Amino acid sequence: MLSGMRVCVPSAAALFGSLCHGCRSRALSLSFRGFSWSPRKISRWNSQDSIDLPPAENPRILITGGLGQLGVGLAEILRKQYGTENVILSDIKKPPPEVCRSGPFVYADVLDYKNLRELVVNNRITWLVHYSALLSVVGEANVALARKINITGLHNVLDLALESCLRLFVPSTIGAFGPSSPRDPAPDLCVQRPRTIYGVSKVHGELMGEYLHHKYGLDFRCLRYPGVISANTQPGGGTTDYAVQIFHDALSTGHHECYLRADTRLPMMHVGDCHRATVEFMQAPECQLSLRTYNIDAMSFTPEEVATEIRKHLPHLKVTYNPDSVRQTIADSWPVRFDDSNARRDWGWKSTYGLEELVSDMLSSIRDKRTNAGLQVS
């Protein structure tokens, strides 16, 4: 066990998320929204024959925004641990066939409270992972929609988690910091004041979750993700997307045009570390958590540094720089490094991928995908 980690013997509720403290009193203090029952269920995995409650050690998990960068990968890991039928992916988009074959998938619009409540009740959900959000660049292009999804959708999920005593995970981001925040490193607790609707909505979520935890006992958990780098999904409208696209370009055309300056340093993380951090944090007993929102760190690099590492494998890679004013301004307001000492102390967080390992894995994974798809590899 890591030095300094607090030890406790948690209740089954703290371990498995089936209950949170304050649930009984909450029924007296909260006015729940009106609801009319519908028999809708997931027909393939949630048949009428499956009416027994799941074992206490297996949470029932719903993931919103499941077709984004992180949902499918997280579901795969959770299904290996808790069983395929206990992890339900959801989104408003039609899933590809391989996602449908991998386990339960349902339509869920986070702006539709009644629909979400049906899913939670009918499928006996105990953990909710809320990945639905518009990211930084997309959000700045459509502030009204970002406000609806990132704030109104969040409030629906918070209300539902309170009512149903769910363990709720809502990711935050490097974008929750602003130009007045400490940058090297950024601690868990400091001035934030972001200047994007994405960042503002994430700070709002952090504070609302912490407030509802202290007032009503909501088991709210939040990690501030760095830029997440994955070979399995395409970039989704974030400021750190270049760090994914550069690998695709290196193996396809051999040329990448970067929308940030060559010296723009930002915190980054391999998707494998991101998923592992999320699972370990969700599994941590409540009494080990001194905070409700933690930074997690892995590495920090610039576009030029990652390009240099890629050239060790692909010497022909050419990178040109054409800074985009919107993305560069956003990046310049963010920290260059996270202080994640609290996560390391409280629940034993430790990253495994450095820059060298990340580059090697990304190139290998994308090369295999292009070869299997019959695409040329540069």
UniProtKB/TrEMBL annotation:
Pathway: Amino-acid degradation; L-threonine degradation via oxydo-reductase pathway; glycine from L-threonine: step 1/2
Annotated function: Catalyzes the NAD(+)-dependent oxidation of L-threonine to 2-amino-3-ketobutyrate, mediating L-threonine catabolism.
Name of the protein in question: L-threonine 3-dehydrogenase, mitochondrial
Similarity section: Belongs to the NAD(P)-dependent epimerase/dehydratase family.
Enzyme Commission code: 1.1.1.103
Domain NAD-dependent epimerase/dehydratase: 61-296
EC supergroup of this enzyme: oxidoreductase
InterPro entries: Epimerase_deHydtase (IPR001509), NAD(P)-bd_dom_sf (IPR036291), NAD(P)_epim/dehydratase (IPR051225)
Catalytic activity: L-threonine + NAD(+) = (2S)-2-amino-3-oxobutanoate + NADH + H(+)
Example GO biological process: L-threonine catabolic process
GO molecular function: L-threonine 3-dehydrogenase activity
Lineage: Eukaryota, Metazoa, Chordata, Craniata, Vertebrata
Organism name: Hucho hucho
